[in-house]
Amino acid sequence: MFSNIDTALIHGGYDPHADLQNGGTGAVNVPVYLSSTYVQHAPGQHSGYEYSRTGNPTRAALEALVAELEGGVAGFAFASGMAAIAAAISLLDSGDTVIISDNVYGGTFRILDKVFKRFGINYLIENTNDAAALAAKLSPDVKAILVESPANPLLSVTDIAALAKVTKAHGILLMVDNTFMTPYLQRPLELGADLVIHSATKYLGGHSDLIAGLIVTATPELAEKIHFIMNSTGGILQPFDSYLLMRSIKSLGVRMDRHVANAEAVAAYLSAHPAVARVYYPGLPTDPGYQTQHAQAKNGGSMLSFDLAEGYSVNKFLTGLKMVALAESLGGVESLVGHPATMTHASIPPDLRAEMGISDQLIRLSVGIENAQDIITDLTAALSAAQ
Q1: Active site (annotated) includes residue 105
Q2: Catalytic residue among 177, 241, 307, 378
Q3: pLDDT in tens, 58-89
Q4: Which of 64, 117, 166, 312 is positioned for an S-S bond with 386, CB 3.0–4.6 A?
Q5: Shared-domain flag, residues 225 and 132
Q6: 53 is catalytic
Q7: Is 209 a catalytic residue?
Q8: In Å, what is the CA distance from 61 to each residue of 12, 76, 120, 161, 373?
Q9: What is the extent of the structural domain holding 94?
């Protein structure tokens, strides 16, 4: 274990010196074990690996790395962020209810509304920003609370430590989707969460070239349950993608520093632009979540959203961008822009989107690591074209 996360990003999860001492090659990078099965000494006697759905040495190194970064007991690598969310929700039984924040990724809403509801697992949408008010609404069937902080796409901030006190008092699981922040900027387990989820496709992968999901647990008991679910359902991350993800995580710190610096500059610029009605970014001192965000995270991250003012065309703005790419996903080194109402959150019914505050004028921006002025120049031209 390394006390400094910048070092842990590079050296965590795998020790080439230990590999060398144990008869390995001492390869600086984790070898990619492209094997589905492993020879056993005798029936039922193996050396730690028997079948790659159950465990693979390359994936195991990634899982050890992410557990170390999040300060958890164990990590688990899935084929996608949604596979990780599905595994987390699979901890619940028929008749249980999970509470989700009043703005979450549309895929999270969809899997609860269209898949798990059919199996008797219910959900409630609540404002998780007020832990005391939420505690008063809890009923015996509520067994878990799943939050994103900052949330997607309105960047609302949940006080994770305050919510953890509530969940622990009521024997409820607290699951935190830490995709937007990464363990470099926020560590929910240290704030009292029971389980952390990542769409590692995003900032952890960082290059828009792989799909992956991660779970880290706070206790051995939860780790055992998640491993059983993973092994039973089989939504595992493949060895080469595990290798790619570890390679990307090595540069997470330097990438996030640049991402955040650019986002702060872009947020300040948009806040002063007449074409923008409102900016949602907890890195701005004027944002309602600013104080909570900076109490539990390193900074405001690099995701932001904004409402175009009346009289400005969303379509003209989006098609007017030349460098910033109109595309699904986020967290890549390139800046990506999306329209939640027709893209990431289209699975949420229009009336519910309106209740959540996701308007048709809302734009979500994943600020990349290009030159900040080049990003602003592209936004300026598109905003002019949108009028």
Answers
A1: yes
A2: 177
A3: 999 999 999 999 999 999 999 999 999 999 99
A4: 312
A5: yes
A6: yes
A7: no
A8: 9, 10, 36, 29, 39
A9: 5-249
